[in-house]
C-alpha cells in the first residue's frame, strides 16, 4: 500500500470510528487494526476536519433513531 493509500485509509478510519454506530473496539476489528492504533489515529486527527459536521449530524440522528427504535420495541414487547 502506497503512502497516499495509507493516508486515505487512516482518514477513512478516523471518520468511520465515531460515525459507524460501532464501539471503537468493533470498528478497529472491522478495519483490521488494533484498538490502540485506531485510538492514536483518532487522537492525532481530533482537530482536523476529517469528520465533517454532516457526518456528526448523521451520527447524532442515527443514535436518536436507535434509541427511539429500542423504546418502541420495549413498548411493543410489554403490551
Can you walk me through this structure?
The chain has a single domain, classed as Arc Repressor Mutant, subunit A, CATH 1.10.10. The longest helix has 26 residues. The chain is mainly alpha-helical and 79 residues long. The protein contains 4 helices and no strands.
Write the layout of secondary structure elements.
Blueprint: H1 3-19, H2 24-31, H3 35-44, H4 53-78
Helix pairs in contact: 1-2, 2-3
Organism: Donghicola tyrosinivorans
GO molecular function, one term: DNA binding
Protein name: Transposase
Quick overview:
This protein is mainly α. Helices cover 77% and strands 0% of the residues.
DSSP helix count? 4
Low-confidence stretches: none
- The appropriate CATH architecture is Orthogonal Bundle
Major sheet characteristics? none
Q: How would you describe the oligomerization state of the chains in this entry?
A: single chain
Rg of Cα set: 16 Å
| Derived structural class | mainly alpha
CATH top level is Mainly Alpha
Structurally, the number of domains stands at 1
Q: β content, as a range?
A: under 5%
- End-to-end gap: 55 Å
Helical content stands at: over 70%
**Topology as a string of helices (H) and strands (E):** HHHH
The gross shape turns out to be: elongated
InterPro entries: Homeodomain-like_sf, Transposase_8
GO molecular function, one term: DNA binding
Protein name: Transposase
Organism: Donghicola tyrosinivorans
Amino acid at each position: 500500500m502506497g503512502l497516499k493509500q495509507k493516508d486515505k485509509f487512516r482518514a477513512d478510519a478516523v471518520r468511520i470510528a465515531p460515525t459507524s454506530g460501532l464501539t471503537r473496539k468493533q470498528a478497529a476489528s472491522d478495519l483490521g487494526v488494533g484498538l490502540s492504533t485506531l485510538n492514536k489515529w483518532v487522537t492525532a486527527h481530533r482537530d482536523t476536519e476529517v469528520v465533517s459536521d454532516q457526518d456528526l449530524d448523521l451520527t447524532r440522528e442515527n443514535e436518536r433513531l436507535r434509541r427511539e427504535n429500542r423504546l418502541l420495541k420495549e413498548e411493543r414487547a410489554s403490551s
